DNA sequence: CGCGCAAGAGAGCGT
DNA sequence: CTCTTGCGCG
């Protein structure tokens, strides 16, 4: 079986196209089409600035393109591929182009198609690290102890599996949460570490020193399940390539050109993977030991020890016949946009590029085509507070006196923040702006809800990108579990999920029996079930129920290759009784769930087979968004990278949320710098209008807490920022018509408010101004931002980790007693009903019972 | 065994 | 405040 139509020519290509401009070996059609597209002059070069053009045309040798935000990075990448193709330097199938997100891969494919005119036939190696990893792994699955139809587990499956292992070990799963261990494994795999290779300290840190054993047990279980996790999609190929020089050589000969997007986000495993693939064919040789050398650990040395050292670069040597003698790798990235350190990304990879690839050409793209001078100025000034940058200076010609400065708004609480943003959006809409051109970028996804609620009330269209995902819905996961077992009968996790859905009288006892039988013999549960129903071991009722399940799966499985997969899928859902569950369900959400199941079947039509579909879901996990609908985009800052919008809203700029407390706790100074890069990413998404918000009160874990403004606000340059009245126009700060329903709100002369102000200015040492009259007047810069260079010293002093951080929970016991009469600025007067640490339950006279933090109320 | 309610824990970002 | 887990009953 071949899932990959391009497999055929893979190792049996005709002679490689000659590496000569306009070489006669060029694949027919593409070059001709590209040239034809605009009267002989390649259209893909048109409109490129000199640096961009250099980045496109420097095809030979290692190239690092440092591309600042909005400098046309994607354009360069796509033009470069178009150039390589149309110059006949390589076949499409000889180009390895790696991105981080499926979105980026899709976009590149489309844009290359436009550039070379028509569909890009066969760019089989353009994709994400993981999709290409899967492809390699399926080809050589047996070398990793898997069959080529292996399943890719998602995070949920992984956690359930680990939980089982922890219980088997007899460990307390409360004390040793599966989620924590899943994260640890992920971290190891990000570094390419097998169980035998993890640091002793790490191994000891979990489960009383049983970390290594558990990791090994996890890998063993994956093998039995014929499954792998996300990390394995990279780690398995690395091991396979290391242990099999012949295979490595084939790939090395295969890939004439390598392109990597978002290079600053590569982790150690991805780096090792690239280094292996980016070797010259003739230098690939066998590893010194079967296991391969130990991978680099953080901070050690300056290069990764891959088996075959790279031979000295022969850059500029001119193109030889047949194959180039240089490593034609082009990495594009921006150290200022490195925001995945927590996922194991090593900015070091990009900082070290010219040492890894001697003689590398480094090209800087600094001309920004996206944002106004104010936005760019604000972003540049903010990011200048980071140390250890490669240092780029973005500039733009687009200085326009009419451009708005960056707006900073204050709101009383997150509800008002959502209201005011909604107001601003509606105003813009009335002026004719499309909602599609606006985005709300949040730090944490829980912030989204408030906006969603508000927009529903307003009847304002919105879409959540990367939010609660289609494939994570209950009914979809159930249906997928059925399909997974049919496609890959060893998938126990899927089997366990649906063996008793719908209810078949197979309770915990029966399932345990199957489970134990399977574990004892190291076979999949479906196989165990098949055995068990032939014996007398089960009670009659579960036995016949289980027999029916087994028979069903066998029958469905036998139809896998003969029946069209969408029909088969419908058949499975009907015959299993799964559809009936929701048909008989009279609750409000049942019709929606049935609709989702139909949508699921519909979306399968685009794929060739059930397995192809399952793989897509495992790797992509997001449903295509409806571009036809005009809607505001809501997403996290992380998923906004690479996008741009006319108008951008950045809510929640408060200490503890942004920068996020956990980044500071776990990452210290570098954690703070990563948060700052995230802020930079957020700012640079905006083309014309940028609105930043912070609130004084935010609800966390259902409890109101007072907050202080983010330090990042103070790092914005005064010249480009304007502190605005709140987004509405209803009588000043915070008092919109929507507030009337709540008579307790917004009394700035109250003790609580005064106290909040006192806390605030103490904590930030800034002059945010008492807002007793109306609005924040101005942002103070006195000691911080006297300029890029000069500012840094004082900034450094101010930036001691954690110094300014809002504490989420107070250490000091509450000074309140039950029965105390208190005042709360939002809810009014009330009596303390009970106390739990610093959390008070208060019966308010008019607002009812609420739980609040004690530092949020005032004794009266 | 299955359902329902109560208590307890818990929300950072994602291929 | 919201979701998951655990326990007790029918």
Automatic annotation (TrEMBL):
GO biological process terms held by the UniProt record: recombinational repair
Region annotated Disordered, chain positions: 1-26, 283-325, 752-773
Record-annotated UvrD-like helicase ATP-binding domain positions: 46-372
A single GO cellular-component term on record: DNA helicase complex
EC id: 5.6.2.4
UniProt similarity note: Belongs to the helicase family. UvrD subfamily.
Biological role: Has both ATPase and helicase activities. Unwinds DNA duplexes with 3' to 5' polarity with respect to the bound strand and initiates unwinding most effectively when a single-stranded region is present. Involved in the post-incision events of nucleotide excision repair and methyl-directed mismatch repair.
Protein name: DNA 3'-5' helicase
Species in which this protein is naturally found: Phyllobacterium phragmitis
């Amino acid at each position: 079986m071949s899932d990959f139509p391009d497999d055929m020519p893979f190792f049996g290509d005709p002679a490689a196209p000659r590496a000569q401009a306009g070489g006669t070996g060029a694949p027919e059609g593409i070059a001709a089409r590209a040239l034809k597209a605009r009267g002989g002059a390649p259209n893909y070069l048109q409109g490129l600035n000199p640096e961009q053009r250099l980045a496109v045309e420097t095809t030979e040798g290692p190239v690092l393109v440092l591309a600042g935000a909005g400098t046309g990075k994607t354009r360069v990448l796509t033009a470069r591929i178009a150039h390589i193709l149309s110059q006949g330097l390589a076949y499409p199938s000889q180009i390895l182009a790696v991105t981080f997100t499926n979105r980026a891969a899709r976009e590149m494919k489309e844009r290359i198609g436009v550039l070379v005119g028509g569909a890009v036939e066969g760019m089989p190696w353009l994709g994400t690290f993981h999709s290409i990893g899967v492809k390699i792994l399926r080809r050589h699955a047996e070398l990793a102890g898997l069959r080529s139809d292996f399943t890719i587990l998602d995070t949920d499956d992984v956690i359930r599996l680990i939980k089982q292992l922890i219980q088997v070990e007899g460990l307390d799963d409360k004390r040793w949460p599966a989620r924590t261990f899943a994260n640890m494994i992920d971290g190891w795999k990000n570094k390419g570490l097998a169980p035998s290779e993890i640091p002793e300290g790490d191994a000891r840190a979990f489960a009383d020193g049983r970390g290594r054993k558990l990791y090994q047990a996890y890998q063993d279980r994956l093998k039995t399940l014929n499954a792998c996790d996300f990390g394995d999609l990279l780690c398995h190929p690395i091991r396979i390539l290391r242990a099999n020089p012949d295979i490595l050589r084939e790939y090395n000969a295969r890939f004439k050109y390598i392109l990597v997007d978002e290079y600053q986000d590569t982790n150690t495993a991805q780096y090792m993977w690239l280094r292996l693939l980016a070797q010259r064919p003739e230098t690939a040789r066998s590893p010194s030991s079967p296991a391969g050398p130990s991978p680099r650990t953080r901070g050690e040395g300056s290069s990764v020890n891959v088996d075959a050292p790279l031979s000295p670069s022969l850059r500029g040597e001119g193109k030889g016949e047949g194959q180039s003698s240089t490593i034609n790798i082009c990495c594009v990235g921006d150290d200022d946009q490195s925001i995945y350190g927590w996922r194991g990304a090593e900015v070091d990879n990009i900082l070290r590029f010219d040492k890894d690839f001697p003689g590398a050409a480094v090209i800087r793209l600094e001309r920004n085509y996206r944002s106004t001078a104010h936005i760019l100025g604000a972003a540049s000034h903010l990011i200048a507070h980071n140390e250890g940058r490669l240092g780029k200076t973005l500039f733009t010609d687009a200085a326009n006196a009419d451009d708005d400065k960056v707006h900073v708004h204050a709101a009383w609480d997150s509800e008002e923040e959502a209201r005011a943003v909604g107001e601003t959006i509606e105003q813009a809409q009335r002026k004719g702006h499309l909602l599609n051109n606006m985005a709300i970028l949040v730090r944490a996804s829980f912030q989204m809800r408030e906006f969603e609620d508000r927009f529903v009330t307003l009847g304002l269209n919105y879409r959540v990108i990367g939010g609660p995902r289609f494939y994570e819905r209950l009914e979809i996961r159930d249906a997928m579990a059925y399909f997974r077992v049919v496609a890959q009968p060893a998938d126990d996790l899927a089997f366990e999920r649906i063996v008793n859905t719908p209810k078949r009288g197979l309770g915990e006892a029966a399932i345990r029996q199957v489970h134990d039988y399977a574990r004892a013999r190291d076979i999949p549960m479906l196989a165990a079930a098949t055995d068990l129903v032939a014996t007398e071991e089960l009670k009659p009722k579960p036995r016949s129920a289980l027999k029916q399940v087994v028979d069903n799966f066998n029958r469905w499985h036998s139809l896998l290759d003969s029946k069209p997969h969408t029909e088969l899928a419908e058949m499975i859902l009907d015959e299993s009784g799964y559809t009936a569950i929701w048909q008989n369900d009279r609750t409000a959400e049942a019709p929606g769930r049935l609709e989702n199941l139909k949508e699921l079947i519909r979306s399968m039509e685009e794929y060739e087979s059930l397995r192809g579909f399952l793989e897509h879901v495992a790797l992509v996990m997001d449903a295509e968004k409806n571009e036809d609908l005009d809607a505001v985009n809501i997403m996290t800052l992380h998923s906004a990278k690479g996008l741009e919008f006319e108008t951008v809203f950045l809510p929640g700029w408060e200490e503890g949320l942004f920068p996020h407390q956990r980044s500071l706790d776990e990452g210290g100074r570098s954690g703070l710098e990563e948060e700052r890069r995230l802020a930079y990413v957020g700012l640079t998404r905006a083309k014309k209008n940028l609105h930043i918000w912070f609130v004084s009160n935010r609800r966390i874990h259902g409890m109101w807490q007072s907050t202080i403004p983010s330090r990042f606000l103070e790092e914005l340059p005064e010249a480009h920022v304007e502190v605005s009245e709140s987004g509405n126009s209803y009588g000043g700060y915070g008092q919109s018509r929507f507030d009337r329903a709540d008579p307790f709100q917004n009394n700035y002369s109250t003790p609580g408010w005064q106290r909040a102000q006192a806390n605030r200015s103490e904590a930030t040492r800034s002059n945010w101004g008492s807002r007793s009259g109306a609005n924040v007047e101005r942002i103070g810069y006195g000691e911080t931002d006297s300029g890029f260079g000069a500012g840094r010293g004082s900034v450094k002093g101010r930036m001691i980790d954690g110094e300014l951080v809002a504490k989420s929970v107070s250490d000091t016991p509450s000074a309140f007693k039950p029965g105390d009469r208190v005042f709360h600025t939002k809810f009014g007067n009330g009596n303390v009903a009970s106390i739990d640490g610093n959390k008070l339950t208060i019966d308010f006279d008019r607002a009812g019972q609420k739980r609040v933090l004690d530092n949020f109320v005032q004794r009266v």
